[in-house]
Amino acid sequence: MSALEIGIWSFPVLMGLIFLRVPIGLAMFLVGLGGLVAVTGDTLVAFGRLKNETYSTFSSYSLSIIPMFFLMGQFATLGGMSTALFKAAEGFIGHRKGGVAMAAIGACAGFGAICGSSLATAATMGRVALPELKNYGYASGFSTATLAAGGTLGILIPPSVVLVIYAILTEQNIAKLFLAAFIPGLLAAIGYVIAISVYVRLFPESAGTREPIPWRERFALLIAVWPVLLVFGLVVGGIYAGWFTPTEGAAVGALGTGLIALANGGLTRSTLTDSFLVTARSTAMIFFIVLGAAFYNGFLALTQVPQELANFVVAQGLSPWMVLALILVFYLFLGCLMDSLSMILLTIPIFYPVISAMDFGLVSLPAMQAEAAMEVLRNGVPEGMGAEMLVSIQDAIANGAELTREQMKELGIRVTQGIANRLETEYVAIWFGILTLIVVEVGLITPPVGMNLFVINAMDPKSRMVDTYKAVMFFVGSDLIRVVILVLFPVITLLPLMLLY
């Protein structure tokens, strides 16, 4: 059996282990180890790789951002930030039809900006908002579905642990991925609010009412949110201002939320120890999955499966958009059976080479040259440029044609096809990363194995899972519409990058 055939057969073996309830990190590790032995015929190679892979994986500086984000989320909860966010949002819109549920979505979005984990956001906001929703007569299934959907904002609105993992796997800039996630994250929150509005109009009995509170109280509640704005502004603003790297920003955020929790009395010796233990357990779980994925992906690289798959797809002559649509649909189905991090680690090393080989036309060389030329001409015609050359440049810009080497020399610019190709590759990687994150996020609330659904339903034993399933489909519909919009209009995702970089 050839190395390629061994690599292909590893997929059913891996999926079989996963369905036998073997932890996915262990399953990937075992299949990768066994595959290396089968391909090389030598156990020394496999165990030698185990030593090197373990060190190279865990010594990655970028991975240190993960425990910092988890710790920041723990301290934010202890500091009462989740409660403050929900109370502020409830004070402004809670009196509207479905307003308390909308407030829960807004609070989830705010908490996601300082947490980075979907399950942590869902669990934290569930403890805060679920009692309030029940007090105001909201239906149990609708309440749990709302909080499960809101929890997904934890991995979409930066910072995001899953985006960090994607950045490491594809060797992309973490700060650029965070920036690209902002608009899709806001669209997600808006879409969920619209879904709530539609649901309560179709099922008026599912949402209770509450009296509006005076404006003075509303502004008092808004002022209480200042710690969240401070931490978010310091972390995100510091990263894009160049004060520190994303990893350093996560450390600053953890320190800031810790100090706020200490000032509010939520951080004691006991709660500090608990926070460290929860962070350590979560980090250890993720790191082991990362190690298993690194070992398995190293084995796949040796068998040339990703490269051969990319070549095969390109040879079929399929439209890049068709390939992208098939991959996203595959993620939607896989999300019903697997958690988000496992999906990313298992599939990105396979799908990313395929997507990278496609030309989506996100970057136009003539457009880049025209933009650079116009920037030069806005400052005046370069000294020594003749009228004939100036007219030829203006004609090329007007007709959308490429500038010649002589024209670029006269302008003093250098925009080549190689530069355009590199930018296209980066844009495709970032755009695909955000799309992947969104469809992975949909998997967290898609029956029958949506992780967030089980987390929230466990907090309300009286709520029937079938009711949650029915209500959550409105949020899934909102997500699917958003995916279609972002696929058709990549500029929505890439606009912040185009403006800032």
Automatic annotation (TrEMBL):
The keyword Cell division does not apply. Its main location: membrane. The keyword Ion transport does not apply. It is a multi-pass membrane protein. It is found in: Cell inner membrane. InterPro entries: DctM (IPR010656), TRAP_DctM (IPR004681). One of its GO terms (cellular component) is plasma membrane. GO terms for molecular function: transmembrane transporter activity. Keywords: Cell inner membrane, Cell membrane, Membrane, Transmembrane, Transmembrane helix, Transport. Residues 13-491 form the TRAP C4-dicarboxylate transport system permease DctM subunit domain. The chain crosses the membrane at residues 6-39, 60-81, 101-124, 145-168, 174-199, 219-243, 249-267, 279-299, 319-338, 350-368, 430-459, 480-500. Part of the tripartite ATP-independent periplasmic (TRAP) transport system. This is TRAP transporter large permease.
